[in-house]
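Renewal narrative, Specific Aim 1. Our central claim is that a sequence can be written position by position from structural information alone. The example that follows is taken directly from our test logs and has not been curated for this report. It begins with the structure tokens describing the chain, in the order in which they were read.
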């Protein structure tokens, strides 16, 4: 055994000593439960002459050993690894979280030197991330920030409320500006608000809930309100889908007024348009107040815009941006 703790392979038969062998770099995802490896990975592990891992605390090691696979906890150099493959041996390296950059760089240098007969090199992913797997990383990062950050650890739902409003507006701006990079970033900022509030909610002494409860609730709601996807009902047009949604929502909420559930704290034009939308959808005939004043004039414009399928808030923002550009032109 040498200074690296790696024991070289025994002397080879002269007839097979020239065979270069095979190196397999086995990668796994920490977002998948340890031991849930692909069938090709298990086949390769059982057939390998040696299995190596530099990290003695690697999450996969107990499961590999339980499956009868001997794993040597060692970190060979590239030269030592190539020598261990001599004679046609297959050596599997179970990669650590960093992906073994020092080892792969060393193998690349050896291959580029042209002085060494290199083994066959193979990258074998043993487990893959499922869509949405990075959300697990976000939850873990938020847990640590909540526990260790002096600012984040003191935040409350009320204290963060203003940031939720700001991030929502910035998301809308990115959409209206058609800025793809900003859209991706602002979606992340909005997602952070959801995860942050959910993490705070876990600490409530009376009614705690977690991000899993939040996700589970919206999943159940989506399935229930899409019987044409998850049930036996049928909807072939967007209008029929909306009718399904409103009918199901009405049964769930059991509201006594179409105005229930409309947040009065939203911007005025949006509030007026939402009220008009509820009135129109319910088939009610509610005349506008016959009162003079700029507020009532704006109310009339908002209801007219909603009837025409125009978002008055978006229309006003577009006009305001044009006005901003005109201001800058004059200033310039």
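The sequence written for that structure reads:
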């Amino acid at each position: 055994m040498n200074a690296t703790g790696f024991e070289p392979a025994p002397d080879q038969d002269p007839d097979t000593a020239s065979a270069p062998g095979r190196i397999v770099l086995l990668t796994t995802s920490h977002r998948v439960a340890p031991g849930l490896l692909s069938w090709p990975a298990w086949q390769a592990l059982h057939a390998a002459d040696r299995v190596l891992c530099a990290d003695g605390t690697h999450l996969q090691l107990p499961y590999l050993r339980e499956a009868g696979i001997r794993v040597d906890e060692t970190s060979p150099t590239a030269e030592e690894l190539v020598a261990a493959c001599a004679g046609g041996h297959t050596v599997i390296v179970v990669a650590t979280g960093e992906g073994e950059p020092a080892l792969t760089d060393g193998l690349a240098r050896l291959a580029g030197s042209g002085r060494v007969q290199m083994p066959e090199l193979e990258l074998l992913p043993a487990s893959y991330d499922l869509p949405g797997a990075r959300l697990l990383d976000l939850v873990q990062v938020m847990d640590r920030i909540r526990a260790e950050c002096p600012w984040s650890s003191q935040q409350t739902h009320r204290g963060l409320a203003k940031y939720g409003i700001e991030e929502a507006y910035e998301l809308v701006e990115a959409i209206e500006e058609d800025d793809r990079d900003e859209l991706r970033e602002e979606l992340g900022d909005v997602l952070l608000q959801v995860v942050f509030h959910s993490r705070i909610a876990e600490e409530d002494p009376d009614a705690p809930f977690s991000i899993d409860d939040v996700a589970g609730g919206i999943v159940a709601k989506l399935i229930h309100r899409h019987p044409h996807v998850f049930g036996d009902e049928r909807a072939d047009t967007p209008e029929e889908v909306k009718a399904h949604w409103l009918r199901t929502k009405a049964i769930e909420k059991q509201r006594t007024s179409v105005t229930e559930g409309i947040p009065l704290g939203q911007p005025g034009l949006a509030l007026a348009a939402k009220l008009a939308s509820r009135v129109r959808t319910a088939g009610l005939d509610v005349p506008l107040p016959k009162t003079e004043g700029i507020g009532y004039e704006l109310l009339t414009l908002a209801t007219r815009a909603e009837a025409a399928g125009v978002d008055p808030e978006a229309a006003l923002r577009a006009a305001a941006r044009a006005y901003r550009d005109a201001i800058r032109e004059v200033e310039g």
